[in-house]
Design goal:
Chain A is mainly alpha-helical. Chain A is built from 2 helices and 2 strands. In chain A, α1 packs antiparallel against α2. In chain B, the strands form 2 sheets. In chain B, strands 3-4-6-1-7 form a 5-stranded antiparallel β-sheet, with no helix packed on it. In chain B, α9 crosses α11. Classes of the chains: A mainly alpha, B mainly alpha. At the A-B interface, α1, β2 and α2 of A face α2, α5, α6, α7 and α8 of B.
């Protein structure tokens, strides 16, 4: 019986698809993907926070009673500071996940075997 | 409200039957499989739809369908910026650690987060510290969610005659029972019914039942939101019309008033919460029940809301029950930010009754854009799901699926409840009722009142999906990480099965007993617990997965560093304000500081030690 808390060693003799994946290959891919993901997050952070800070906060010079700009039925800052980046983020996330992320094999599920009664 | 309550009751009964059925099916499906892996992790076999929807549903708790609509109604379009961090949540929380966590979990034969960390460093101490901190924070989270479940159900069923009878009967039955008699009858009934249902299906079905119910919840949420969007836009006359009307709105005022009649009453005259009174060109709404007692002509001072927007006041008529009532206002308090300002619902920071810098200062907006995606990455409930998908293809397609899913439901909810702001004035008296009341109104006007049942199913479905995950997380930590790891490594499958069932029931009952008389700051504990979990686990797990230099000492220091900073900032906030809310140093969400403390602690202690070459050879080469 496999004791709990002990990692399974790599099995060199079985076919690649059935082995626990090469740790280094998946690790390298994951690190590269992490850099991409954090960069993507950073781009949208600057866009959303920057645009909304500049155009979405009420300014003292605004005339009382003047109406904020409205586009497509929403405040304009929501359109260009939230809606458009959100749609783009969904598109970029989808593209990245489907076409860029590596399809690394994870290995067969491992199981505990407890003694039965 | 009665029609909403009827629909809610029917929806709840149907939904509960459905989840219990799924639990039974799940229990049958699990027969013959290895118990621990199946009960706590569904045998790591989930495909795209199961994985994507359980991940999405877990992050969308009751707050998404009760709290978020209430905030949109109260503060306007600024909530679009507040929630904007969700746009990268799927990519960050699934892509950052998904594949690597799943691989390391398989390699270390782990079904829990403490087990992964303990096995990664071959350190029982790491596992023990992780288990203790996880159980500590998760238990608070669990208490808050059980209370939320009872509260949501009680809110949804208010006005249903059968429920009112049950509430009064229960209140009478426990009137002389210590501890139980501190809670209201309606809350007790809802808490018990909700708890029995959730504990029942979690105990019997385990992780697979949780995932399957999450799939059902995810579908319910999606359909409900899309239907509400079409109805709301149609009935408000288009989004542009709603926004232009919001541009003319000014925040209401809260206050107190006494209500008077000309003649002494022969019986008690009760005016329910929500009653409208129009007088001298002003519109007032009761924020609590008012009673003119027998033999009297006046109420004690009661809380009221006064509208200040001209076109809203024009639409209000005095409620029939208050036809002969005159109102005398004794006190009015304008909003701290935005009082009297048109356009304040269209811009940041949004109006606020209690905060003189508005609802969403820029520092808070920055903090939430960071917290939503990275906080979600650090939640153990999400990490456990990342251990359960079957292959990389599932993860990749799920990122695509959840990205689309979140874009639809969160953007739609902003539009829906901005429309709701125009359609239903005066809901500041009880903004948590926004979702069920708007659903009822929209479907009634559209001539399909039965549809309200589907729409109001979303909030308590969302809470159920959170409670079940947290319950199993606590249970798995105690059984796997504490009992099996430290007391009885060779426990048989039969013993583990019985223990898992017993611990899940025990934890659930304990949580219910503790929230029968919930502490005052329980809602703040949700924020405390969720922030604490992310502070404690995000950086230690991230560094353990990706940094070969990481050590057991660094992991423990990272977990404790984040926890100590989080607890410290919360204590500081309590001393400053008297409320159980963390102090926002430099106006930043405490999560930022927690993460910094965790990272610094982890890196310093890891560099001070020497990693065991055997440990990292297994995972890095």
């Amino acid at each position: 019986m496999e004791p709990i808390g002990v990692a399974k060693p790599r099995d060199e003799g079985t076919p690649r698809a059935n082995r626990i994946s090469n740790s280094k290959e998946l690790l390298d891919h994951s690190l590269s993907e992490m850099r991409w993901i954090i960069s993507v997050w950073g781009v949208f952070f600057v866009w959303v926070i920057g645009y909304c800070r500049l155009f979405g906060y009420a300014r003292p010079v605004d005339e009382p009673g003047s109406e904020p700009a409205i586009q497509f039925g929403m405040p304009a800052w929501v359109v260009w500071g939230v809606l458009v980046p959100w749609l783009l983020a969904a598109a970029v996330s989808s593209w990245f996940a489907i076409f860029h992320m590596a399809n690394d094999p994870l290995g067969n599920p491992t199981t505990d075997e407890q003694p039965s009664d | 409200m009665t029609e909403a309550s009827n629909s809610a009751l029917i929806a709840f009964v149907i939904y509960t039957i459905a989840v219990l059925s799924l639990a039974v099916l799940s229990g049958r499906y699990s027969k013959g499989k290895e118990f621990v892996g199946e009960y706590f992790l569904g045998s790591r076999s989930f495909g795209v739809w199961a994985f994507a929807l359980t991940f999405a549903a877990t992050n969308a708790s009751g707050g998404s369908f009760m709290g978020f609509p209430a905030l949109i109604y109260s503060h306007g379009w600024t909530l679009a910026l507040w929630i904007a961090g969700f746009m990268t949540l799927p990519l960050v929380s699934m892509g950052l650690i998904g594949k690597r966590l799943n691989q390391v979990a398989r390699q270390s034969n782990a079904v829990t987060i403490p087990e992964i960390l303990g096995t990664r460093f071959q350190s029982p101490m790491v596992g023990l510290v992780a288990t203790a901190l996880l159980v500590f924070f998760m238990f608070f989270y669990l208490l808050a969610q059980f209370k939320a479940g009872g509260k949501i159900l009680s809110t949804l069923l208010a006005g249903e005659p059968a429920f009112q009878w049950a509430s009064m009967t229960t209140a009478s039955a426990v009137a002389d029972v210590p501890w139980l008699n501190q809670a209201s009858g309606d809350y007790l009934v809802c808490l018990l019914v909700f708890s029995i249902a959730v504990i029942g299906y979690v105990v019997y079905g385990g992780f697979r039942a949780i995932v399957w119910t999450d799939v059902m919840q995810g579908v319910v949420m999606f359909i409900g939101v899309v239907v509400m969007l079409f109805l709301a836009l149609h009935q408000v006359g288009g989004l542009g019309n709603a926004t232009r009307k919001m541009a003319k709105m000014t925040p209401p005022e809260f206050g107190t008033a006494t209500l008077t009649v000309n003649e002494k009453q022969t019986v008690d005259w009760v005016l329910p919460k929500g009653t409208w009174i129009k007088q001298a060109g002003n519109a007032y709404r009761l924020a609590e029940i008012a009673t003119i007692n027998q033999g009297e002509t006046q109420t004690r001072p009661v809380a009221i809301l006064k509208l200040t927007t001209a076109f809203e006041i024009e639409t209000i008529r005095t409620s029939p029950v208050a036809a002969d009532i005159s109102i005398e206002v004794t006190e009015l308090t304008p909003y701290q930010y935005g009082a009297g300002q048109q356009g304040v619902y269209l811009t940041n920071p949004g109006p606020s009754a209690t905060n003189n810098v508005g609802f969403l200062a820029i520092g808070t907006a920055i903090s939430f854009f960071i917290f939503w995606p990275f906080g979600a990455t650090g939640q153990p409930a999400n990490m456990v799901r990342l251990m359960a998908f079957k292959d990389s293809h599932t993860l990749r397609v799920s990122i695509f699926t959840v990205s689309i899913y979140y874009a639809v439901i969160y953007l739609a909810m902003i539009l829906i409840f901005c429309c709701g702001r125009v359609l239903m004035p005066g809901m500041e008296i009880d903004p948590d009722r926004m979702m069920p009341d708007l659903a009822t109104q929209l479907t009634a006007v559209a001539g399909v009142p039965w549809l309200a049942g589907l729409l109001v199913a979303a909030p308590f479905a969302a809470v159920m999906s959170s409670v079940d995950s947290f319950l199993l997380l606590v249970s798995s930590s105690l059984v796997r990480d504490l009992y099996q790891r430290h007391f009885h490594r060779d426990a048989s499958e039969s013993r583990l099965k019985k223990l898992s069932y017993a611990v899940t029931i025990f934890v659930g009952i304990l949580a219910v007993l503790m929230v029968l008389n919930p502490p005052r700051y329980l809602q703040d504990l949700i924020v405390f617990a969720s922030g604490g979990l992310a502070a404690c686990f995000l950086m230690p797990v991230l560094l353990s997965l990706y940094w070969r230099r990481m050590t057991a000492g660094g992991t423990i220091a990272g977990m404790l560093g984040g926890t100590i900073m989080h607890v410290g900032l919360t204590a500081w906030g309590y001393i400053e304000s008297g409320q159980f809310q963390a102090y926002e140093f430099l106006s930043l969400n405490p999560f930022i500081w927690d993460l910094a403390a965790s990272t610094i602690g982890a890196v310093i202690f890891a560099k001070a030690g020497t990693p065991d070459p055997e440990h990292y050879r297994t995972y890095f080469e």
